[in-house]
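Translate structure to sequence.
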């Protein structure tokens, strides 16, 4: 299964740390976050990888070139950011009509990736994608999901003041080939996956919940939490 890692963000909430280093290369417990993703994905049998770049792209290119994953990575530079859905739509051909993994690579995630793939393979028939979820410490800052007893997402609330729970969208997805075809047909003008795609798929999204470490390192506080221990 091929994977698209979204790694082009500016990391503004993490400044001044990201003034000289892109967020995807911030070290977590001594290892660049992007390297953690590539290592764990490859170990799980996932790949090759497409990585989009924008901010401090030269550093990302140098990191990939010097890494053991360089032969399995394709970099696509975006002179202007086109959004999470925009990047996916522009690169649909990379997946060769097969299921694909879409990853927000600014999360420190130690979830069981093979179990995530198995959950997708065994998803309810009506579901066209599988979303990884985690328990959020600050649910008002996340996209919160409601699920039925089969794990199907029945409601989605993107960063509202009083969300009905703390089970959050992790920004890590497996997209079926059926959904990729639908995106090409029905979502050509979408730019943001969370706000323009997910709400229209409620009732057709399976969820896989991880209790393993899952931290968005986007703020100094959460970045420090990721490096504790």
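Result:
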């Amino acid at each position: 299964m091929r994977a698209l890692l979204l790694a082009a963000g500016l990391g503004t909430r993490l400044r001044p740390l990201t003034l000289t280093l892109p967020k995807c290369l911030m070290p977590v417990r001594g290892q660049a976050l992007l390297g953690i993703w590539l290592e764990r994905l490859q170990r799980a049998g996932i790949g090759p990888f497409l990585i989009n770049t924008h901010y401090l792209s030269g550093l990302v290119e140098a990191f990939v070139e010097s890494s053991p994953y360089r032969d399995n990575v394709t970099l696509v530079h975006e002179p202007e950011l086109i959004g999470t859905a925009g990047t996916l739509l522009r690169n649909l051909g990379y997946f060769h009509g097969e299921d694909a993994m879409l990853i927000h690579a600014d999360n420190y995630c130690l979830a069981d990736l093979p179990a995530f793939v198995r959950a997708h393979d065994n998803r309810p028939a009506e579901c066209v994608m599988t979303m990884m979820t985690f328990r959020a410490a600050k649910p008002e800052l996340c996209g919160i999901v409601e699920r039925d007893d089969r794990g199907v997402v029945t409601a989605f609330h993107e960063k509202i003041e009083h969300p009905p729970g703390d089970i959050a969208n992790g920004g890590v997805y497996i997209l079926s080939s059926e959904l990729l075809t639908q995106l090409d047909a029905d979502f050509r003008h979408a730019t943001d996956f969370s706000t323009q795609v997910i709400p229209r798929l409620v009732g057709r999204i399976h969820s896989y919940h991880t209790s393993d470490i899952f931290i968005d390192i986007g703020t100094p506080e959460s970045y420090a939490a990721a490096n504790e221990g």
